[in-house]
């Protein structure tokens, strides 16, 4: 639920404030909710690429607004471009 929806929307459904949910998520998983959402998107991207999807399709499947968005997230977490990450995973 939190992986794909705004924090405040999820908080309202759970009957807590956005601030309370942010605090709980940070305590339970050690990541801020936005960072958690970025990690989940990256995981979806990697699964799609591993299944053979082209980069643009993998970015869309992951829930990214566009390829530059995915490029920023991939570089942030892996230090590689999406193409390089894909190449390294496929050659491993």
Folded structure, characterized:
The structure is a single chain. The protein is elongated, with a radius of gyration of 15 Å. The protein has helices spanning 7-14, 18-29, 33-50, 55-62, 67-78, 82-91. The model has no long low-confidence stretch (mean pLDDT 94). The protein has six helices and no strands. By secondary structure, the chain is mainly α. The protein starts with 6 loop residues before the first helix and ends with a helix. The protein has one domain: Homeodomain-like (Arc Repressor Mutant, subunit A).
Question: How does the SSE layout of this entry go?
Answer:
Blueprint (H helix, E strand, L loop, with lengths): L6 H8 L3 H12 L3 H18 L4 H8 L4 H12 L3 H10 L1
Helix pairs in contact: 1-2, 3-4, 3-5
Helix count from the secondary structure assignment: 6
Q: In CATH terms, what is the fold-level topology?
A: Arc Repressor Mutant, subunit A
Largest sheet: none
Low-pLDDT residue intervals, each spanning 5 or more residues: none
Q: Note the run of SSEs as H and E.
A: HHHHHH
CATH level-1 class: Mainly Alpha
Q: Calculate the mean pLDDT score and round it.
A: 94
> In the CATH hierarchy, what is the architecture at level 2?
Orthogonal Bundle
Rg measurement, Å? 15 Å
């Amino acid at each position: 639920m939190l992986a794909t929806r705004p924090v405040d929307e999820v908080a309202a459904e759970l009957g807590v404030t956005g601030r309370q949910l942010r605090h709980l998520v940070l305590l339970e998983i050690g990541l801020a909710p936005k960072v958690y959402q970025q990690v989940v998107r990256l995981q979806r991207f990697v699964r799609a690429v591993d299944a053979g999807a082209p980069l643009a399709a993998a970015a869309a499947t992951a829930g990214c607004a566009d390829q530059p968005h995915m490029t920023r997230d991939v570089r942030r977490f892996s230090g590689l471009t999406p193409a390089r990450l894909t190449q390294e995973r496929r050659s491993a």
